[in-house]
Amino acid sequence: MAALAHVVWSPALLDYDFGAGHPMAPTRLQLTVRLARDLGLLSLPGVEVVDVLPAPDDVLTAVHEAAYVAAVHEASDHGHADRHRGLGTEDDPVFAGMHDAAARIAAGSRDAALAVWRGEAAHGVNIAGGMHHAMPGAAAGFCIYNDAAVAIQALLDEGAERVAYVDLDAHHGDGVERAFWDDPRVLTVSVHQSPATLFPGTGYPTDTGGAPGSAVNLALPPRTGSAAWLRAVDAVVPEALRAFAPQILVTQHGCDAHGTDPLSDLRVGVAAQRVAAGWLHDLAHELCEGRWTALGGGGYSVIDVVPLVWANLLAIAAHADLPLDTPVPVAWREMVERDFAMRAPTTMDGGDDAVAFVPWTAGYDPADDVDRAVQATRAAAFPHLGVHIE
What we know:
CATH topology: Arginase, Chain A
Shape: globular
Number of strands: 8
Protein name: Acetoin utilization protein AcuC
CATH architecture: 3-Layer(aba) Sandwich
Pfam family, one: Hist_deacetyl
Low-confidence stretches: none
CATH class: Alpha Beta
Helix content: 25-40%
Mean pLDDT: 97
Organism: Flavimobilis marinus
GO biological process, one term: acetoin catabolic process
Distance between the termini: 46 Å
Strand order of the largest sheet: 2-1-3-8-7-4-5-6
Largest sheet: 8 strands, parallel
Structural class: alpha/beta
Radius of gyration: 19 Å
CATH superfamily: Histone deacetylase domain
Number of helices: 11
Pathway: Ketone degradation; acetoin degradation
Order of helices and strands: EHEHHHEHEHEEHEHEHHH
């Protein structure tokens, strides 16, 4: 009998560690898994927690240049920096065991996607995944190997003809877009802060793919809040996916769009991110017979945001009844306050109010910055997808 949710987890995933003071702290994974366990999510019927080994080089070179994989081995084994390939930079410092740590993340996303594609699980989740900035020949933005691209390529190699990728991280999903820029079998949709104001400086609405319509980019102004962000997502993502008609959906749930995150300027709360994840889950059931693989990504508010967003994501994948006002388990709160000397959130919505938004069908307001961003994306990308716009 197929599992409901194939959840990738191993304590070895915590080895992806750039060192003290780096924003990509493995603590965020540790806290998420502890919270999910305390909520009982990982012991629900139909949820299988699956260990993972590092991906072999031939899996990585399906997406990455062989010379780059060799450079990561050198950095990992001998500490050799190769800044030309992004290794040994401030964003991506070299550390012992780097190759295995990054290859394990890539294998986890690949395994989850293939479990879904092969009918072994309805949904797959790898919260350690979502390393969307890694390029074919270089590390970038805290990302060594691009696990999302590795997973999508594996799906194509297994015979998938239409794979949709949706990226909700505050930063543009540039590495995944680059990997499939010319491939009409893959639709990449990225919702991110304007590249004029945030790394990596790409993902303008007019970037619609080398195979026209293979990329959709929704670039939002700084300080976009929850209601406007949900309106924007709702105005672009469902129509794009319905037009493409994917056979499987891969999504990235970087939660650095939150207002407390130190590395972006968006203001999207936990509750809004939970709503958007629920929409993507529902779209997978509507369009792909439920085939959905969800990945983590960015997110640097380690205690107040990341564990809540990703535990909520796991609840959605497990079809768990977890209302947003569910109290955070006392044991988790006490652990946070004891080990981190910080106040822990008390409810699974992070204290956010319920989010109400005005749907796009209510009308376009040309005086609104977010509406103009949405309209720019719809005007640039939708005709390539065969979607009529007013």
